[in-house]
Design brief:
Length: about 300
C-alpha cells in the first residue's frame, strides 16, 4: 500500500536497508547518472515484472510514478548494458553475505542448529543468456548461459540462503562440490545426482562428511546387506551397498534406499547417514524438491 502523503511505495521501503548498504560502497566514484542504488531499483523492478530485455527496463521509465520512485527520468538500454558490464560482481556478493548474516542473526543461528542440526540443500539452475552478447558463457549452439549453484540452509521456519556460486553453464555441477559441500561432521548435505562423484564420496566417508543424494539410473551397485523395512512403510528397500564397477568401485559402503517421489516415480537414494531411519531420509529428500522448486525462479533479463 502507498500512503496519501508520501511518494515512497512499499516496494522501495522494503529495500531501503539494501539501499543504505549500497550507498556505502565506492562503485559510484566516477558515475554521473546511473548510480548503484538507481540501477538496483531498476533491476529488482525488472525481475518482479518479468521484463525480457534491457529495452523493456528502459521503457519502464515512461511511467511517471515509477520514474519518480527510481529518481531517474530516463536511461537508454545501452547505458544499462554498459553498467552491467562495468559493475563488479563483488558488490552483490558482499551484499548477499551481509543479508545472510543479518537474517541469521535475527532468526538466531544457535536455535537453528539445536532444532534440526545443520542441514544444507544444494542445487544448480541455468540462466539463459543471449549468444551474440555473451559468447564467453559457452553453453549450447543457440544460446549462452550461466549456472547458479546455490546452497540453502534448512531450519524450522523455512530456508536461508547460505552460499551462491556462479559459473558458465557448460561445466558439470560436480565441479563445484568443493565450494558447496559443508565438510563438517554435524552437517548433512542434500543434493541431486548431478553432483554424484564416487571419489568425493570416498573422501566424505573418510572424513565423516554426511550427504544424501540420488543415484543415477545407470549406476552399478553391489548390495552387501539388506536392512529391515516395515510393511506399511513408503520405503521399498533399505540396504548397504558398494557403488561402482571394476575401475570406479568405491572403497566405502553406502546406504541405498529405494522409495517413490510425490508423483509415484521410483527414486533411489544413496547416503552415508546411518543414524536416521530410511523414512526420515526419504522425507528429507522429497522435502528438498519442494523447497528448491520454490527457490529457483529467475526471469530472462538479458535477451
Amino acid at each position: 500500500m502507498q500512503g496519501k502523503d508520501t511518494t515512497k511505495s512499499t516496494f522501495f521501503q522494503l529495500f531501503q536497508p539494501i539501499f543504505y548498504y549500497l550507498n556505502d560502497t565506492e562503485v559510484d566514484k566516477y558515475t554521473k547518472k546511473l548510480f548503484i542504488v538507481k540501477f538496483f531499483k531498476l533491476m529488482v523492478y525488472a525481475q518482479l515484472e518479468q521484463f525480457r530485455g534491457l529495452r523493456d527496463i528502459s521503457n519502464s521509465l515512461c511511467n511517471k510514478t515509477h520514474s519518480q520512485h527510481v529518481d531517474l527520468e530516463s536511461i537508454s538500454h545501452s547505458q544499462i548494458a554498459r553498467k552491467l558490464n562495468a559493475l563488479p560482481t563483488t558488490v552483490f556478493q558482499a551484499l548477499f553475505q551481509e543479508l545472510v548474516m543479518q537474517t541469521g542473526a535475527r532468526i538466531g543461528f544457535p536455535k537453528l542448529r539445536n532444532y534440526l542440526g545443520r542441514i544444507y540443500l544444494i542445487d544448480a539452475s541455468v540462466i539463459s543468456l543471449c549468444l551474440t552478447r555473451y559468447r564467453w558463457a559457452d553453453f549450447r549452439k543457440t544460446k549462452s548461459g550461466v549456472k547458479l549453484h546455490l546452497r540453502l540452509r534448512l531450519f524450522e521456519q523455512g530456508v536461508l540462503p547460505d552460499h551462491a556460486q556462479i559459473t558458465p553453464a557448460r561445466p558439470s555441477d560436480r565441479t563445484q562440490m568443493d565450494n558447496l559441500i559443508v565438510e563438517e561432521k554435524d552437517a548433512i548435505n542434500i543434493f541431486d545426482r548431478g553432483y554424484v562423484d564416487y571419489k568425493k564420496f570416498n573422501h566424505y566417508c573418510q572424513e565423516g562428511t554426511q550427504f544424501i543424494s540420488r543415484l543415477k539410473t545407470n549406476a552399478v551397485s553391489n548390495v552387501q546387506k539388506d536392512l529391515p523395512v516395515a510393511p506399511e512403510s513408503a520405503i521399498q528397500r533399505d540396504c548397504i551397498a558398494i557403488l561402482g564397477g571394476y575401475s570406479t568401485k568405491m572403497e566405502y559402503p553406502l546406504r541405498l534406499i529405494e522409495t517413490r517421489d510425490t508423483e509415484g516415480n521410483p527414486v533411489t537414494i544413496i547416503t552415508n547417514v546411518f543414524s536416521m531411519s530410511a523414512e526420515e531420509i526419504g522425507e528429507l529428500y522429497r522435502y528438498r524438491w519442494q523447497i528448491l522448486s520454490e527457490s529457483f525462479c529467475y526471469p530472462n533479463l538479458f535477451y
